[in-house]
Amino acid sequence: MTEKRTSIHGQWSSRMVFILAATGSAVGLGNIWKFPYMAGENGGGAFVLVYLVCILLIGVPIMMAEILLGRRGRQSPINTMSALAQEAGASPRWAWLGWIGVVAGFLIMSFYSVIAGWALAYVLKAMSGDFVGFTGDSSAAAFVGHIGNPGITTFWHTLFSVMTGYVVARGVKSGLEKAVRILMPALFVLLVLLLGYAINTGYFDRGVAFLFDPDFGKLSREGVLSALGHAFFTLSLGMGAIMVYGSYMPGKASIATTTFTIAFMDTLVALVAGMAIFPIVFANGLEPGAGPGLVFISLPIAFGQMPGGLLFGTLFFVLLTFAAWTSAISIIEPAVAFLVENRGLSRRRATAVVVGLAWALGLLTVMSFGGWGFTFEFAGAQKTDGIFDILDIVTTNFMLPLGGLAIALFAGWVMSSKDTAEELGSGETGLYHVWRVLVRFVAPAGVLLFFLHSLGTF
Ligand code: TRP
């Protein structure tokens, strides 16, 4: 029935490289910057528990679906969806899924690059010994001063945009594969080191209790929706990034095994980051609900005190930048692949267009912290960072879960079980049936329930 397609953009050299690239996409600012501050804002344990359930029951099956669609379609998400819809005799409107993903990608990249720019700037600060003698107050003041200066943050945002464009323009294969192989393990080693420091603060138990003792009274409606949204964000799901990476995946690799590996690594990094950060937060009298500044304020205090802090601080922010870098390329790859396929642009041109647009949009986030911030209420929670918060909420809490829902419905209901079983390579085994139930019923119902809950319906 289906002729085997090949991607015009090339293919990862092995299954291992696909795992590294997809893990590189998944592990990023979401794990180290966003997860701790979201857990902090939402009272800790109960948020973490809901988040873990979302990863396992919704994220993992949808990731398998997204990889499967990509590998079968072998094109940018827009073209993959039209090809697969046609193959299944379904409406060509499924291509909209790809379009919404491209828009979400622009919006996400716009703020992602600004935050990654903060990390980049902090490399220089760490190297110059700025953190030495930091207290909770002085570290917070330094951070607020930094992000409140739009000239400086625009500079670093620009640099990060160019770095991302550079890699994407060269093709994901050349250069990046090697980089991730060394950098991802290095990041992990550093996190463990920080964990060691956190254990010695004397506040480790309190940090761990904060993360793992669920107190559902502290979980707002917004918190529940954010846990779902964050599960999508951290696994890079719902907008075609994992789909496009799947389209470069070797045909024979097992989708289930790779998905579990990626989701496991991603979750581990987030939890270790949380266990490293919260003890430092409590030991220094900081506020766990401090918001986006949490990591940038708490860790420099630790680096300013520990022996070798200059070196470790520098390394940490270098690696955080690299983690963000390997994620950012996946955020813009769907749009770039589309422009190359459908508009006949060279990869370099296509990248320049996409990066340029996302960069300009990013100035809104720069200004959200640089004087234009405003406060509003969302689902019962106070938001203080204006347009940045809006971009974050619209993409993470709405576009990604809705994109994921559509992916689940397509893989579960539109495609035939024969086709999905063939692509998953598991035949009609027990595991396949578990996946199919999850993707047809559990994941879609889960997403809908979360939406209804946050709208206050029940
Ligand atoms: N998962 C990455 C992180 O946690 C961010 C990311 C990369 C992403 N690609 C994405 C988020 C696609 C949403 C969609 O930092």
Structure description:
The mean pLDDT is 92. Strand 1 and strand 2 (381-383) form a beta hairpin. The chain has 18 helices and two strands. Strands 1-2 form a two-stranded antiparallel ribbon. The longest helix is centred in the last third of the chain and has 34 residues, at 309-342. With 458 residues, the chain is mostly helical. Helices cover 75% and strands 1% of the residues. It has one domain: Up-down Bundle (Amino acid/polyamine transporter I). The chain has helices at residues 15-26, 29-41, 45-73, 77-87, 95-127, 136-147, 150-170, 176-199, 204-212, 221-234, 241-246, 255-283, 294-305, 309-342, 347-369, 386-414, 417-424, 430-454, and strands spanning 376-378, 381-383. It binds tryptophan. Residues 25-26, 28-31, 108, 233-234, 236, 239, 241, 327, 330-331, 400 line the site of tryptophan.
Q: What is the first-to-last residue Cα distance? A: 46 Å
Poorly predicted runs are: none
Total of helices: 18
Bound molecules: tryptophan
> How is the CATH topology named?
Amino acid/polyamine transporter I
Mean pLDDT: 92
Helix content: over 70%
